[in-house]
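Fold these two proteins, one after the other.
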Amino acid sequence: MIRAQFRKVKDAVENNLDKAATKTGLTLHRNEPLKQINNAKKSQIEKPAGDAVVIANAKPQAERVVLDDAELKCSEMASDIYKYLVNHEKKYVLHPEFMNGGEPTSKMRKILIDWLLQVHLRFHLLPETLHLAVFLLDHMLAKKLVKKTELQLLGVSCMFVASKFEEVFLPDVYDYEYITENSFNKKQILQMEQLILNTIQFDLSCPSSLIFARSISRLLSEDNAGKIDEQAFFVAYNMIPKSHIAMASMSISLKLCPVDGINNEQAENLMMQNMDCKRSELEHASVLLAQAALKMLKQEKLFACKQKYQSAKMAQVANLITTEAKQKLEKMSEIL
């Protein structure tokens, strides 16, 4: 019944359209059923020209890009990067007597850094975090803004700021509160964080000795057929964190632990050439670094650094400091 009524309406509409078309002179084309492509005599898809072969259901394959070591290590820009780092770190060099005049003494600083090293190991932080924390601590002490009663608060706050800048998964502020045995609360740590950032004007871009040591080891590895031994590599990190002192640390480590295929004099010339350093500056830095290493070895109470480098992760390089190595360090510290 409904279909019959629908047909009547459809026929009436078509008759009215035909009458209107005859009056206006238009021709209406009725919709014809669609033809299937498979029934067509001529193929709708043209074959590729030449001897190309078409594979059915072929999946596109991604080409693997092979990069050279020179591209990954940015060899073309290495010299410009070294020049920038050397020029950039000069504005962060502190006066040798930056500790004088303030309440905290150099002995207090040594004890604090030894404790910060234990905190660094406890939280499993990156080496860059420790270097940045020491950098922030020294610049705050140079400004004479901290009392000796707040020295531990300054140290843990510097580590907190450094972990925010360097780490991906950083400890919570309550972890730092707990590590101080609740001597300082969250509010005090956050207030000290604001004081640190405002004092340094949010400038955390100082290159550390770790960056220079890695650059130097890469230079020496590329210049020679054999790679630098891990023992000499890690001994270079077992020094005080000063950016321009990395060359002296590498030179001392190569003298204490010689590496086959690397001449110490040639290595020093290569470092001075790439780091824009004079021979007198390298010798002066080597003397200062040897003296600092001897002082560290004589202080038995500050054991955190020695304990760190006795671990298997650090290739147990602390065990390489024998009596013969100490005698070599004493000779290096006496050369002026």
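Now the second one:
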Amino acid sequence: MEKMQMRQQLLLDHLKPETGRRAAANVVTSICSANDSAPYARTTDFLDDVVIVAAYRTPICKAKRGGFKDTYPDDLLAPVLRAVVEKTGVNPAEIGDIVIGTVLAPGAQRANECRMAAFYAGFPETVPIRTVNRQCSSGLQAVADVVAAIKAGFYDIGIGGGLESMTVNPMAWEGAVNPKVEADQRAQDCLLPMGITSENVAERYGVDRRQQDEAAVKSHAKAAAARASGRFKDEIIPVHTKIVDPKTGEEKQVVISEDDGIRPGTSLADLSKLKTVFKKSGTTTAGNSSQVSDGAGAVLLMKRKTALERNLPILGVFRSFAAVGVDPAVMGIGPAVAIPAAIKAAGLEINDIDLFEINEAFASQFTYCAQELGLDEEKINVNGGAIALGHPLGATGARCTATLLHEMKKRGKDCRFGVISMCIGSGMGAAAVFEQGGAIDPLSNVRAVGQNNLLSRDAK
């Protein structure tokens, strides 16, 4: 302590006039109390923050039965790619790379479809595009990859997004399974149907049928209220497409502008009548599981300096990302491990988070994760989740990003930090921390300090 005060006094002596240094009393030494009260440890300069200036999604529609049942995957992706540049005025030729998360389609085919979608959206041939697959977190991984590339200086502006048509590409295993799998239980568990992993979570962690059905009821109720009040309008890009009558083959041109999987009025009584799907004595049903869906999303990212130079509004700041591994047999617990890791990486505590978007792959795992982390129910999936909205695997991370950031913007400066997370097939979890773009400035980015507890790391 004495050494620190001596250093301060020496510095102050240099700042005072030559005459009467010791007599000057208007400048005094004091203990710094800002350092450890900062909400996170900055690793970059303020202007080097990677920010989101636009985040949009298509409506999410029921696979094979919904509004996109006759829509090509590239026609799902093109509208959101076009939207992020048109609505911001960014020249498509300035995009350094486009990264799209996608899961089910054959890799080479989907890569070509994404390239085609970029052309449909008006991007020149000079703009590259690639796909990434980390299963259910692919859309979020795409955004994180673009953030990392911008931080590394590979380019200044990029787009991360996601695409899935579960109508066109249903979940299926192709080819033979390596017989070596019999020798490793963890490898065997990577092949478990996702519904069985849900049953494993419910059984291992004591999540009963009623709890799961209650979570599903709340998801539909919140989503229905959000849709009815127009809560999703700012994030959804309407899609011009066609619907084909399966009996007559007649094509009808339509504009899809709303999610079509939400079921207003869903009740516990209704859900309790549903039979279990994966295990006769189990608890997982079609009603308390995420819907099989079609959809796409896109997120435009750049450094804060670039956004300010262009006078672009800042929706959010990407603060941290974490991907973790868990037991494949209970892959649904991934968010319970990934969320603390991402929050720690951001230098925050879980109570600092104002909103959570946690993918509801199954009500069993969603309920477990929320309870394990002790989350406030009022902060989680405030506009419903995948049980009501749907889960187009590769697009979910981009969908959640758009939903979270637009909701944070609506709530204003009191809603500062948000988290997105999801479980990942084969036993993983991913999470990212975002900060609301309008909640900070370069000069007052610290928490209020109630009393001086000598928090500075120098005060030892």
